UniProtKB/TrEMBL annotation:
UniProt organism field: Leuconostoc fallax
SUPFAM superfamilies reported for this sequence: Winged helix' DNA-binding domain
Membrane-crossing residue ranges in chain numbering: none
GO molecular function annotations of the record: DNA-binding transcription factor activity
GO BP terms: response to stress
Domain HTH marR-type residues, every copy: 1-132
Protein name: HTH marR-type domain-containing protein
Length: 143
């Protein structure tokens, strides 16, 4: 059972990466995509982004430079602490995420074709449990 679970998790990760690559014309890295996805909910400071994503400030800074060069994000000094920068999506960044969202909708339609409602609910609960565990561990390691 353990071997099969590991094999399925690896295969699922590979398939999701392949699906992501179909809508990634600028060849964004995983980190760059994750930054954009995190900024979908609004403006954030780099210190918060590095904590949420579980990456070093140096790695985040390099990724933000590339995203600014692609015109996907913009930064401005934070009003309350001028040493910090507020980072937000540009229109190009939002358009990129919209194209990815369209691909996610297509993936949802395929999942609904192969899973009945009970299977969908079971997947949601199981995946959510694993996602929460992974995020909590990453946040603890970042502290």
């Amino acid at each position: 059972m353990t071997d099969k679970l590991q094999e399925i998790l690896m295969d699922l990760q590979c398939e999701l990466v392949a699906e992501r690559n179909l809508v990634n014309p600028d060849q964004l890295t995983w980190v760059q995509y994750d930054i954009l996805n995190t900024l979908r909910s609004g403006t954030a400071k780099p210190s918060l982004l590095s904590q949420q994503l579980g990456i070093t400030r140096t790695k985040l800074s390099k990724s933000l430079v590339a995203l600014r060069e692609m015109n996907y994000v913009e930064q401005s000094p934070n009003i309350s602490d001028r040493r910090e920068m507020d980072t937000k999506l540009t229109d190009n960044g939002r358009q990129f995420l919209a194209s990815v969202s369209k691909k996610h909708t297509e993936l949802l339609a395929r999942a609904q074709q192969v899973w009945n409602l009970d299977e969908q609910q079971h997947f949601i609960e199981s995946a959510d449990k694993l996602i929460r565990l992974l995020r909590e561990e990453r946040q603890k390691n970042a502290e």
